[in-house]
Fold:
Amino acid sequence: MNDSSTRHIALLGSTGSIGKNVLEVVRQYPGRFRVVSLAAAGRNLGLLRQQIEAFNPLVVAVADEREAGALAQSLPSGWSDRILAGPFGVEQAACLPEADTVVSAIVGAAGLLPTLAAIEANKNIALANKETLVMAGELVMEKVRRHKVRLFPIDSEHSAIFQAMEAGRRQDVFKLILTASGGPFHDWTLEQLTGATPDQALSHPNWDMGKKISIDSATLMNKGLEVIEAKWLFDMALDDIEVVIHPQSIVHSLVEFIDGSVVAQLGVPDMKIPITYALSYPERLRSNAGRLDLSRCQDLRFMAPDPERFPALPLAYLAGKKGGTCPAILNAANEVAVAAFLRNDIRFPEITRVVAETMNRLPVNSILALGAVLDADLAARMQAESIVASLALQDKARTATVPAETCLTFPNS
Ligand code: MG
Structure:
C-alpha cells in the first residue's frame, strides 16, 4: 500500500470508549491508517502506555500536566520531548503537521478547543464529540466552510443520516428522523425514575459506552444534544428533525425525502462501523464486525418519546431554538448535573431539573466569538453547581416517601 492512500490520524481521547474502538479499527487495517498522535486526559496512564507501545505515535499529549510528567518519567529517555502537556499540548497534538485527519473523541466541553484548532490547521475532522457542535455550531461550521475541510460524523445516528442523505439531492430532503434506544428506563414510570440509581442508569441495553453518555442516554439528553448536532451538521431546521424511540438500536436513523421515500441505515450496534466509514469515506472497507441477520430481527419497534418522563428532549429543542449561548448553557449544566447524579448528590429526575433551572436563571447571548461560548459555559457550571448544592441539602431533609418529581418549570420560550 503506498503512502498516499494512508490516512494519518491524530486521535484525541484515545483511552475513552470511542478512542479504543478507533485504535481497533486502525489495527484492523494496517497500511490504511497510521496514528501520528494520541491525546488523553491522563486518567488511565497504564492504557495510554500500552497504546504508545502498540502504535508508536510521533507525539502524545496528556491534558493533566502532572500526569504528563508521570508518563514522561515512565517512558525511555528519548520520549521526553515527544510528550506534550496540558490543554495546549492537546491542541498541538491535534495540529501536528503530519496529521491529515483528526478524530475528535474527547468527552464533553473539553473537546471544543482542540477541534476548533484542528479545523484552523486545515485538518479533516471525524467527529465523535457532539459538544463541539452543540456549544458552538455556528462558529464551527463557519470555520469548516472557510478552511474547506470535511466533517465526518462518528455518532451512529449522524453517520446513518450522512449515508442516507447520499440517496437524494439535498433540496429534496423533507426531514431527518433520529432513532433513540430510549436507554435502560424507556418503560419506567415517573415514580420508578425518581429512585433510579447510577448503576441502573449505567447499564445500557445495546451500546457499551462511557459513563457520561450512558447517563445522557438514560435521560434522553443525549438525543437532545444529537438533535442540535444534526441541525448544524446537515443544515436543517429543528422542526424538521424528529426523534423516535427504537429500543433495538438496529435502524440507526432515517432520512425522509419530499416524495415520501424514507431511506434508513441499519446494522448491528457496533461503533466500529461508523468509525470506519468516517475514516475511509467515500470508500467502504470490508469489516469483521457482526453481520445483521434480518430473520432474527422480527421485533423492530418504533414509538414517540414521552416528554413527561423524559423532559430533557423538549428542553434541548427549546435550547436549540433559542440559539446563541443557550445550547452551551444546556450542555454545561447537564455535565454538572450528570456528575452530581453519579456522586449520588441528586436524584435521576433532578438532572433535567438542574438544567432547566440553570437555563431559567441565565441570559442568552449571541455567539459573535468563542469567548461568549466559554463565558456561558463557565457561568452555567457555577449556576448549576449551586442548584445541585441546594437540591442535595433538600434531599437530606426529605423523607423516603416523597412523590415523583413532576413539576419541572421550563424556561420561557
Ligand atoms: Mg449516538
